[in-house]
Amino acid sequence: MATEQNHDAQDLQQEQAAEQETAQTQAGTEQNEVSVESLQEQIAQLEGDLKLEKARTANAVYEAQKSVERIQRESEKHKDTVLEKFAKELLDSVDNLERAITAAGDDTSALSEGVVLTLKSLLTSLEKFGVVVVDTNNGFNAELHQAVGIAPDAKANEIGVVLQKGYSLNGRLLRPAMVLVGQ
């Protein structure tokens, strides 16, 4: 009987151990499931954070590119403004040299030849930077010419006398030509 009780006790212990093992396995599985679920949640959270940071980075790169483009546009505009002011100042020198040539008349002295060469050199330099004389041969154009009087011997809407040459810089008018127009 003691052997039987020992067997029964061993069987009972084995059953309890098996039940305990099953309980531990179920608890371990539940713990693994909880761990897997929490890890999946963490992965999802990290993926969301990564997408957000990628979007922020892309936005920062876009803003930086736009800033560079804006600065370049402003720089070009500033450069054009400075060039325009400088060219306008040089036009006074061109006018003075033309007046000196007109005042010299038919005199072909070394001084008058030097003034002519200086004027040519100055006009060549201005043309390199886009400053050109406004056309006065194709009739009156209110956008390019400023009529300051009437030329009695000129035809209607034609330029009779050019009092002061006009100039443009890269297609923009620097100074209109002052002209007398026919009636």
Output the keywords.
single chain, 183 residues, alpha+beta, Nucleotide Exchange Factor Grpe, Chain A, domain 2, 3-stranded antiparallel sheet, 3-stranded mixed sheet, 2 helices, 15% strand, rod-shaped
Fold and architecture overview:
With 183 residues, the protein is α+β, with helices and mostly antiparallel strands. It has a domain at 130-183: Nucleotide Exchange Factor Grpe, Chain A, domain 2. It is built from two helices and six strands, in the order ααββββββ. The strands form two sheets. A three-stranded antiparallel beta sheet has the order 1-4-5. Helix 1 (2-104) runs antiparallel to helix 2. 6% of the residues are buried.
Give me the CATH superfamily of the domain at 130-183: Head domain of nucleotide exchange factor GrpE
| Main sheet: strands, sense, barrel | 3 strands, antiparallel
Using only CA atoms, what is the Rg?
46 Å
Strand order of the largest sheet: 1-4-5
Name given to the CATH architecture of the domain at 130-183:
Roll
CATH classification class of the domain at 130-183: Mainly Beta
Strand content: 5-15%
> What structural class should be given to the helix and strand makeup?
alpha+beta
Written as H for each helix and E for each strand, in order along the chain, the element string is HHEEEEEE
Q: How much helicity do the residues have?
A: 55-70%
First-residue to last-residue Cα separation? 146 Å
Distinct helical segment count: 2
Overall pLDDT confidence: 85
What overall geometry do the principal axes of the alpha carbons give?
Answer: rod-shaped
The fold-level CATH name of the domain at 130-183 is Nucleotide Exchange Factor Grpe, Chain A, domain 2
pLDDT < 50 stretches:
none
Give the beta-strand count.
6
GO molecular function: adenyl-nucleotide exchange factor activity; protein homodimerization activity; protein-folding chaperone binding; unfolded protein binding
Subcellular location: Cytoplasm
Subunit structure: Homodimer.
Biased composition (Low complexity): 13-31
